[in-house]
């Protein structure tokens, strides 16, 4: 019994008054009534550990003396007898039948903007990896340049003389496709917002370009790779073969480097099959993956959503991410203050190591083994997409469009995100540094309002997206005072949650270094200081291009457009399927390039 790892099964609890709780087991339709202390012990057991480990954690939580720990062990034994705490391995038994095989990844997309010369290196590196592993997906380039770069891109692609077929889309193809959507009954204003990011102001539109991928590749499984990546791969130094179900915000391990040269000198490159790694998870149900796994399967953290999806056989991995080596792809270092485990230990190796990690964006972030997570964390630098069923849209304007996409998967679908144990070289311009504190960006506004508007909807993805959209429209229709009160409440709540998590991580450290405490305190004080600004929750991108009063009006309009997009998205996808059946796509075949 000492080596067996236990955890609580999925349950719901409700306070009943007089210091008692009802604990409900949905899977078994069973109910128990416990005093609050027993319920606290059960809550502690939502994370896997040995029997003695669970007892020690529970005793520490309840501040129980050594003499009373026998009572805690007795409570846990009773909960095991009731079937409320079970061996972790029992959760993976009888998890449903294997579903039919999924189709292989059909296409590799490169969303790009103003990088016609760099696209040559990117395409060539991925084409070589595909050739070496016998893979023949179509290659597609989706150009989001704001000025006409068509001839530059077509020349760059032609000069490569690739063996694979190549398709291309620029502004002309997108404009033409929006006209086709309008003939299918889609409002052209919504179509332009979704596919071009058409909105007042000089906003970047990577999410609109990714939405073009979702429509062009409707019905397919695809992989997308950023135009500043190269298919130079590395693996976790201690790669494992187990399958991990993780409740962590970011399940990747991390290493940190002073500069690009240091990173390159320390990195061991590997000639792995990138598409094969994504293919091994993308589109598969959790039950499939667990049933086929010959190596250990573990649950990291509470993971109730994962266990429920596993037991019910309903959840699929609809997006898979590679790790990143090179530029981290994030603009602020604050998330590092929420690091745990081995990553935290590296950050705490010395004050110099800590400060170096918070300054230089050069890093390696990769999971140890194949990992499925219930957290919406999503970085689309290299992203596989199971686009065979309805996926939510990317947010069309501003940065962190992938973060909004991950949040919508979590809110609107029963599905999951996967991480593969390979890191792809993010060859962004070297020498970039982090901003010390995060700004309030358009994506932050959308994320906090989505959480505020969500009411644990049930049902199909299309109905949930429309419900979220209607709620955002209702918020946008509020009077100015009510609207800003809602946004302030939602944004402050989200920021407060981040601060609480950061504080909790700091307090959980056995010996938290003074320099770590100083950085957490600075983050907290910075947050308090910006709340004195009446425009603190006007997105910074809108402040940058317009005066304060117009920016406030633009903020409301953007929320209304977002609500309209979510309401219309299922219809847009249906229209794209209809057009695809008629041979109409956004991208156009370039013909033989070899």
Task: Using brief descriptors, characterize the structure shown.
594 residues; alpha/beta; 14-stranded mixed beta sheet; 3-stranded antiparallel beta sheet; 45% helix
How is the topology of this model organized?
Elements: E1 5-8, E2 12-17, E3 20-25, E4 30-35, H1 36-44, E5 49-50, H2 51-62, H3 69-81, E6 85-87, E7 107-112, H4 116-132, E8 138-143, H5 150-160, E9 166-169, H6 171-183, H7 188-196, H8 206-216, E10 221-225, E11 229-235, E12 243-246, E13 253-256, H9 260-266, H10 274-279, H11 286-292, E14 297-300, H12 304-312, E15 317-327, H13 341-347, H14 351-359, E16 362-366, E17 371-373, E18 382-386, H15 401-412, E19 416-426, H16 442-453, H17 461-476, H18 480-508, H19 514-530, H20 540-545, H21 548-581, E20 588-589
Parallel strand pairs: 7-8, 7-10, 8-9, 12-14, 12-17, 15-19
Antiparallel strand pairs: 1-5, 1-6, 2-3, 3-4, 9-20, 10-18, 11-19, 13-16, 15-16, 15-18, 17-19
Write a brief structural summary.
Helix content is about 45%, strand content about 20%.
Explain this structure to me?
- The protein is built from 21 helices and 20 strands.
- With 594 residues, it is α/β, with parallel strands linked by helices.
- The strands form three sheets. Strands 7, 8, 9, 10, 11, 12, 13, 14, 15, 16, 17, 18, 19 and 20 form a 14-stranded mixed sheet that branches.
- The model has no long low-confidence stretch (mean pLDDT 90).
